[in-house]
Amino acid sequence: VKCLCRRKMSDREERKRSDQSPLEDEDHEVRDRHSDDRDKSRSGRHSAEGKRKKRERSESPSSSSSSSSSSDSDSGSESSSSSEDRSRSRKKHKKDDKKKKDKKDKSDKKSSKKDRESPREDQCPRLIPRSLGSDKMIKATYEAKAALDSNAKVPPVTVAVTLTNTGDFALQPVSLNVTTSMNVRLTSPPNELQLLGPGSSAEIRMELVVASVGKPHKVKCSIKYEATGEGAPAAPMTVPCEMLLPCSSFLVARAMTHDEFNALIGSNSTPHKSSAVIEAGGRSFKHSLHLLATLLNLRVVHSMDGAACLYAISVLGHHVAVLAKAKGGSMVSVDMRCSDEALCQQLCNEVSGLPLFIAQ
Predict the structure, then answer these.
(1) Contact 297/253 with Cβ under 8 angstroms?
(2) Is residue 41 included in any domain, yes or no?
(3) pTM above 0.90, yes or no
(4) I want to staple 207 with a disulfide (CB 3.0 to 4.6 A). Which of 52, 117, 156, 173 is the partner?
(5) In a domain, 25, yes or no
(6) How far apart are CA 281 and CA 163, in angstroms?
(7) 120 vs 32, 54, 115, 123, 292, CA distance in Å?
(8) How many structural domains does the chain have?
(9) Is residue 278 part of a domain?
(10) Domain region containing 238
(11) Same domain for 177 and 212?
(12) Which residue ranges have biased composition labelled Basic residues (predicted)?
């Protein structure tokens, strides 16, 4: 009985299994299909992602190259534009600098032309020395003025002679011989130069006393020298000269107040009058006044705009009072009053010849 029961139970179980197996198989098949679909979809997704990544990898160099090329082109365009801007700015600056330079050159030319036409205000004009004599090897000039610090009854006239060696040989010795007369006496003879080299200059001085001041005095003199060196003349050389002492060299500048000057010209001490005109030549009144005072050895007593009064006394005691006034057309009038008529006229003649002695 137990065996039969067991068989029946086993049969039933087998039937149940047989009944359930098709369903389970179907379920398993469905499950397998779903898993296959999932695997396929996953593999498809993976393959799509792989393809997309491959495309991105393949496209990334080109995009980077394109971006780099675009950036390079942008930077190149920017650099080219900046270089063009810089070149344009440089050209503009060059043009501006050239314009400024041209304007400056024009202004400099105008100023130099004005300076040539008229002397500068800060440059005081000067007088050139008088010529004494010259030859191929030596040149002599001189300046004559009355001594200011002399205690003599008749102050001497100091003559400074400048000797210049214009040749190629050394000169030794060099001496100046003066011939005196009744009107001119030599109180201090000139010294002798032991050596005067080529291109060098030296000064010798002497003092003369004159007997009258109403006319210029001519003094005869001569320069003697010997040239040394290979090819130099064997014999001593002599240059004859003539020294002219103008009447202005007999005047001594003296200080005087304005009231004393007015009293002098108002008295009978200066009865003789004379006048002259100075051509200023574009110079200021101040410069013309300086030239007048230097030429005649005068002292400025009083000066104001366009007018001045000057004074000097001769070595023989003659008064010389001068009134200078600026006139239109670059002219300066000179009115002179003196104690001696001849002296007054000679001084006015010197004033008229002033332009001949102005250094250019």
Answers:
(1) yes
(2) no
(3) no
(4) 156
(5) no
(6) 32
(7) 121, 92, 6, 5, 18
(8) 2
(9) yes
(10) 130-245
(11) yes
(12) 88-103
